[in-house]
Amino acid sequence: MRACIVKKQLTLQPQEPPLNHVDSCNRFQPSPNKPFLATPGVIARFGHDTIIDCLIQLQRQAQLHEGIDYLQVFESVDGDRLWFIEDGEGGAITALLPEDY
């Protein structure tokens, strides 16, 4: 029997470097050369739907600002955090909990 995961409202936090910084060049677009991964812990805590909703929000932000930083953080009202990291060339896009890092 699978546990029911309650969808949490998460808010994207401001990134550390300014949006116009040279390092704000990531698009969070999965591809065959850049797979999208999620750790078991983040799937258990937030569920697939929430993770995908956040990924879509990152893609929109990246399009709007012509790129964003490699590390993006979402936070719930109760303090739960969901991180997204986009690795460089040949890497992956990973959804993870801070303690998974």
List keywords for this structure.
5-stranded mixed β-sheet; 26% helix; alpha+beta; 22% strand; globular; 101 residues; 1 helix
Low-confidence stretches: none
Shape: globular
Major sheet, described briefly? 5 strands, mixed
- The run of helices and strands is EEHEEE
What is the strand arrangement across the widest sheet?
Answer: 1-3-4-5-2
Counted up, domains total 1
What count of helical segments does DSSP give?
1
Q: What class would the helix/strand composition place it in?
A: alpha+beta
| Proportion in β-strands | 15-25%
Measured on Cα atoms, how large is the radius of gyration?
Answer: 13 Å
Number of strands: 5
Mean pLDDT comes to 93
Q: Please, could you describe this protein's structure?
A:
The N and C termini lie far apart (29 Å). The chain has one helix at 40-65, and strands spanning 10-12, 36-38, 71-76, 81-86, 93-96. It is built from one helix and five strands; from the N terminus they run ββαβββ. A hairpin with a 4-residue loop joins β3 and β4. The protein has one domain (22-100). The mean pLDDT is 93. Strands 1-3-4-5-2 form a five-stranded mixed sheet, covered by helices on one side. It has 101 residues and is α+β, with helices and mostly antiparallel strands. The longest helix is centred in the middle third of the chain and has 26 residues, at 40-65.
